[in-house]
Amino acid sequence: MCPPSSPTTYPSSPCDPPPLRKGLVRMTTTLVPPGPRGHPVLGSIREIQRDNVSAFMEAFRHHGDIVNFRGPLRINLLAHPDYVQHVLRDQHKRYPRPRKVQGCLSTIVGDGLVAAEGTSWLRSRRLTQPAFHRDILRRFGDSFTASTAELLDGWERRARDGEPLDIKSEMMHLSLANLARALFRTEWTDEVSRIEPAVQEALGFTHRRMTSPVDPLKFPSAARTRFRGALETINSLLYPMVAERRRDGGGDDLVSLLIDAVDPESGGMFTDEQIRDEVSGFFVAGHETVSTALSWTWYLLSLNPESRRRLQAEVDEVLAGRVPTVDDLPKLTYTTMVLQESMRLYPPIFVYMRCAAEDDVIGGYHIPEGRWVVVCPYVTHRHPEFWDNPEGFEPERFTPENSANRHRMAYLPFGAGPRKCIGDSFAMLQMPLVVAMIAQRFRLDLVEGQQVFPEPAISLRPRDPLMMWLRPNEETP
């Protein structure tokens, strides 16, 4: 198991910031943002631990664009895109992630891109960025469609038997299979069946660590034992695969590209341990984002038959029954808009935590040094100043005309600023291909009587199994 990264070192004298946008006036103030009163001692911590998305949304509706949560852990929620831009982009050096968040993540991913800060993060970004260029990622399109075809062949048998399926579980398995093919150019069937529960166990325990006032890693428990076992499983799978790729050489998968990567500034290269850290980060962040977005997409399409008909018509017209390729993506415009709207309503990464490295002022309110600052895309994506009918499912919001004048920070499914998700192109290349292939062969209908709730964990996924009926297209009107 890789040890946690060393604590973040904040800059002692950051350079002067660029001018702030309207509404962000630097001044000396002690004005505290409005917020819920909460418990006299605990503040709002119980509500946040129980369901932070609902707590943040309720606070935004009652108190506005910047909210102060009282309690043992003081938190400020930022909802307005101007404030989001201030923290995630314009003044990002003054808002690193909280050490607790970084430490919890680093227990899984070491000092990889997902958890690193400062110079370690910059080095990892320089070394990994070329492998995620869209022109490089195009080569994996055939792998994604092959994995999807295998999944759909299995669905044919289940459809004949009249069995509903858990679309959340199916999309989780598919996203892991696609990621394994891109990372190692292998079907990795047996390994995926082992790493999938290990990743889920590690993520679940990490979420509990982040939200608990007492670190469960410090005390013996069955959960801690399972977590450590999950890390051992992940390492036992990743290290041999990395060593094999280094020994064989010459591959065109992502791991081979990382092995060959050279830092343009230092001339340094990744060690096997560092590649393990990066790959584990891709498994933690990459598959969860994609599988969650796809799950919500099928749920929303089942509730919006007109949008489903439009998507089906586009797929039929563009593909005419053949397997899609990456060259078809520019023509699958409505399919892409459906995915964008799904991620607006249910952003997989629904919260970004930062910590003020020094005193600041946002929107005329004092942000003291050490204060945790929360950007919640779930809230910002429903801001009525930037989204008409914010609770409605309207993929047409994302036409070029409707998007032209929208605030750039009003929509951030992959984050924003220098730490924007490196895998955004990977996700937006993979997901339209998957959606198009499934729509060619099946209509997915929600099993009646289900109550579907979002679960704010590492990602904002459906809380329970998402059971859907498979309707082969030849049986649908």
TrEMBL record:
It holds the Pfam family p450. GO terms for molecular function: heme binding; iron ion binding; oxidoreductase activity, acting on paired donors, with incorporation or reduction of molecular oxygen, reduced flavin or flavoprotein as one donor, and incorporation of one atom of oxygen. This is Putative cytochrome P450. It comes from Streptomyces peucetius. The gene is cyp0913. PANTHER family: BIFUNCTIONAL ALBAFLAVENONE MONOOXYGENASE_TERPENE SYNTHASE, CYTOCHROME P450 FAMILY 4. Residues 1-20 are annotated as: Disordered. Transmembrane segments: none annotated. The keyword Oxidoreductase applies. Its cofactor is heme. InterPro entries: Cyt_P450, Cyt_P450_CS, Cyt_P450_E_grp-I, Cyt_P450_sf, Cytochrome_P450_Monoox. Keywords: Heme, Iron, Metal-binding, Monooxygenase, Oxidoreductase. The keyword Translocase does not apply. Its EC number is 1.14.14.1. Gene3D superfamilies: Cytochrome P450. Belongs to the cytochrome P450 family. Heme binds at residue 421.
